[in-house]
Amino acid sequence: MLVVRTIVAAWCALLALAGAFYFGLCVWAAQRFRRQDSGAVHGDFAPPVSVLKSLKGLDPKMYTAFRSHCVLDYPEYELLFGVSDLQEPALQLVKRLQQEFPQRQIRVIHCPRSLGMNGKVSTLTQMVPDAKYEHILINDSDIVAPGDYLRRVMRNFGGTGAGMVTSLYRGLAGNTIPSRLEALGLSTDFMGGVLVAREMEGGMRFALGATMATTKSVLREIGGLEALVDYLGDDYELGARTAAAGFRVALADVVVETALRDYNWADFWSHQLRWARNVKDRRHAQYFGLIVTFGLAWGVLAVLLDWHAWWTWAALGIVAIARVTAVVAIGRSVLRDPNVLRDLWLFPVRDFVALAVWIASFASDEVEWRELRFRVRNGRLEKL
């Protein structure tokens, strides 16, 4: 029994050290991203833009998010809000927005048809023909944008061959511990993985739902949004298809915020599991490689299994230092998340929960979304 525990502890220690190496990659990728100077390369290209938002239900800080898109420092743009139901409660916020900013081009588009399983994409598909401009930007209804958001996104189209531009984002946590755990995951683990993938794959090969800027011409060339109406990860799929068609997917040097709900533990688990199973389905080999990203958890397990051995403590110490360094490099230096250091004590909890979600994700390909259950196959939703 002692021999078995020692062997398992050794494996955990090795995974912890592999995790330390991965966190080192995160720091390197974060430094590479910080050194990019988008403005010097792309200048001040600022074409007129149609900003599209699909509405369904009410999100935290929703009016703050809407309002941030009305005070952007940009010469010409319009805001389009799409709804499948004209009784949608979020329309009251849009009406308030129109009253506060009468000088802005703000329109509501009724999108009554259901084109597929993904209601958001169904609505966006029906909105595109109503967009006034060639350049369009799609983002979620809970995104809070800085004043120079459009300038820093759209200048990436200036003479660089970009077919799509996306951006990083950080989470605005609610009042519950699960909400704070999700914010930590976004601002460190998820965005760290995005930056590492960008470096290892020679550029972005997917997009993030916080920002998906492109053109109508590119959409037509990749089959339009209507080709994505049955996909769960529509943002990933849209970026992947753009890259596969030979267009560059650029990562803008701007960070936006997404307001998170006050999750209870059950909702948090369901949300994390849905995201995990979608990633597993679309990037299976890379997803298995996430085993090394739980380095801190492996280090703790190594010590618990053989706390008398000096090498388990050494592995834990090394991975803990690497973990904190990566948190600072990504969460503070890149995303400028003011709460990362405040919630540093939650990282062991976050890492063990993330490990549990990763293990559970292999048990099934079923997900729960909008109170319905689906099976995910090759990115597509199949209703159960």
Overview features:
3-stranded mixed beta sheet; 5-stranded mixed beta sheet; alpha/beta; 11 strands; 384 residues; 14 helices; globular; Spore Coat Polysaccharide Biosynthesis Protein SpsA, Chain A
Characterize the structure shown.
The chain is globular. It has 14 helices and eleven strands. The protein has 384 residues and is an alpha/beta fold. A five-stranded mixed β-sheet has the order 3-2-1-4-7, with helices on both faces. A three-stranded mixed β-sheet has the order 5-8-6, with helices on both faces. The chain has helices at 2-35, 38-42, 62-68, 91-100, 119-127, 149-154, 177-200, 216-221, 234-244, 265-282, 284-288, 295-305, 310-334, 347-361; strands at 49-54, 77-83, 105-110, 135-138, 143-144, 162-172, 212-215, 248-259, 366-369, 372-377, 380-383. The relative contact order is 0.17.
Note the beta-strand portion: 15-25%
List unreliable stretches of 5+ residues.
none
Taking the alpha carbons of the first and last residues, their distance comes to 44 Å
What is the fold named in CATH at topology level of the largest domain?
Answer: Spore Coat Polysaccharide Biosynthesis Protein SpsA, Chain A
Annotate the secondary structure layout.
Elements: H1 2-35, H2 38-42, E1 49-54, H3 62-68, E2 77-83, H4 91-100, E3 105-110, H5 119-127, E4 135-138, E5 143-144, H6 149-154, E6 162-172, H7 177-200, E7 212-215, H8 216-221, H9 234-244, E8 248-259, H10 265-282, H11 284-288, H12 295-305, H13 310-334, H14 347-361, E9 366-369, E10 372-377, E11 380-383
Parallel strand pairs: 1-2, 1-4, 2-3, 6-8
Antiparallel strand pairs: 4-7, 5-8, 9-10, 10-11
